[in-house]
Design a protein that fits this description.
- By secondary structure, this protein is α/β, with parallel strands linked by helices.
- 34% of the residues lie in helices and 20% in strands.
- The strands form 4 sheets. It has a 5-stranded mixed sheet with strand order 3-2-1-4-7, sandwiched between helices. Strands 8-11-12-13 form a 4-stranded antiparallel sheet, with no helix packed on it.
- The termini are far apart.
- About 3% of the residues have low confidence.
């Protein structure tokens, strides 16, 4: 018998041009054997289940066949214990090897596609992506794609973000609902931590309190998909591969804003304009019909507050979500209270609001609000002063003076005229 190592050597010698006779001398195998293996080439080994030991299991074969015929779901561990009580002295693996040969294959049931009525359900999930922005060459960034897909029309709203924290999740929900112009009856979530905190037999599924506040505000019912049942959320998970292959690959992006700008253009011009393979409808046209079934948006904005405490840096900034926001130079306390809504960051000192900023997307950004700095910005500063007036030309600058100075100048000039 030729071993795998010998076979590789035979084929290698043949590739080098040696004759069958020369290979036979080197390996010690007959020339007919050498010809056979050269003609066959390198074939992957075919493994087959090892036959159960006939001496141990044979007296119990009829018993095992009868038990599996009546109860096909009996486990190998259970049957091994039963055989032990009948005098079987073999091991557990001997029983399972025999069971694999005789156990009837389970009949796979046909999967029934679940089609969602219009306005009934939206599905939310995140997908993981890696990229390098041209503004930060050779720096690999991890970004997450938040996506909400309506189950009936397959209309998709999506946005790339740097974080999956609760504030980002709430902000994406608000933006998605506003873009769709309405709200579905329910939202189906994967068991992500920002949505589902856990589950118990007594209380059922525990949702994040702020997510419930959002659901109450918009009148939507949150629903967690069953664990280990990925197919229940396929309408949102299948498009992730479509986004990756049709949009994300072979593109370059300057930064997160440019990435989302290109994504919005692709969604408007390609993804939501395509003929969907399952519904056989153009997504945007199908959504135009479904939109009438969505719940209307509430009259007021969603203002749930996430309370935080932050320490002010030496530069007069606080950090929230990886971005820096300014506080006024007159702030006295080093630790301040921060209230984050879906769209704004409020900073409070002793219970009074001292600053308000719009939430900055991404990470590593800075914002200095108008009036927070008493001194002009340094020459080398790259942080814009939001709302600050443009600088005046030097010739237009006038130093303000007290009226008493002008009065004294007027009296002196009058005295000079009187003395002439």
């Amino acid at each position: 018998m030729v071993t795998l190592g010998e076979l590789v050597m035979i084929l290698d010698l043949a590739r080098q041009g040696l004759t069958v006779t020369a290979i036979s001398r080197r390996t010690g195998h007959d020339r007919k054997t050498i010809r056979k293996y050269i003609a066959r080439g390198l074939e992957p080994p075919a493994y087959q289940p090892r036959a159960a030991g006939p001496g141990l299991i044979r007296p119990f074969e009829a018993y095992l066949r009868e038990r599996l015929e009546r109860f096909p779901e009996l486990t190998g561990r259970r049957l091994w214990r039963e055989l032990g009580e009948l005098g079987f002295a073999g091991g557990y693996s001997t029983v399972t090897e025999f069971l694999r040969a005789i156990r009837p294959a389970p009949v796979k049931a046909f999967e029934r596609r679940f089609e969602t009525p219009p306005g009934k359900q939206g599905q939310v999930d995140f997908a993981f992506f890696k990229t390098e922005f041209t503004d930060e060459p050779e720096v690999e960034r991890i970004v997450w794609l938040f996506s909400l897909v309506l189950g009936h029309s397959r209309m998709m709203w999506a946005r790339f973000v740097f974080r999956q924290d609760l504030a980002t999740v709430l902000r994406c929900h608000v933006a998605a609902f506003e873009a769709l112009g309405g709200v579905p009856e329910q939202i189906l979530y994967d068991r992500m931590k920002t949505a589902v905190l856990g589950e118990s037999d007594e209380t059922g599924i525990a949702y994040n309190a702020k997510l419930l506040d959002l659901a109450t505000h918009y009148g939507v019912l949150p629903k967690a998909c069953r664990p280990y049942r990925a197919k229940t959320k396929g309408k949102v998970e299948r498009p992730f591969r479509y986004v990756r292959e049709d949009f994300f690959l072979a593109r370059s992006f300057r930064n997160l804003d440019d990435l989302n700008a290109q994504l919005r253009q692709w969604l408007d011009q390609v993804a939501n304009r395509r003929l969907h393979a399952t519904t056989q409808r153009v997504v945007a046209e199908h959504f135009a019909e479904e939109q009438a079934f969505l719940k209307p948006l509430p009259a007021g904005p969603f203002n749930a507050v996430l309370g935080l405490e932050r320490r002010i840096s030496r530069e007069g900034m606080i950090s929230v979500g990886g971005n820096l926001y300014s506080v006024p130079d007159s702030t006295r306390r080093r630790i301040v209270e921060v209230q984050v809504t879906a769209t704004e960051v409020h900073i409070l000192e002793n219970g009074e609001r001292i600053a308000a900023h719009p939430v900055l997307e991404g990470r590593g950004r800075r914002r200095i609000a108008e009036g927070h700095r008493t001194m002009p910005a340094p020459v080398n500063s790259t942080t814009p002063r939001e709302g600050a007036a443009p600088p005046h030309p030097r010739g237009d600058l006038v130093t303000p003076r007290s009226l008493a100075i002008y009065d004294a100048v007027g009296r002196r000039l009058a005295a000079r005229e009187a003395g002439r």
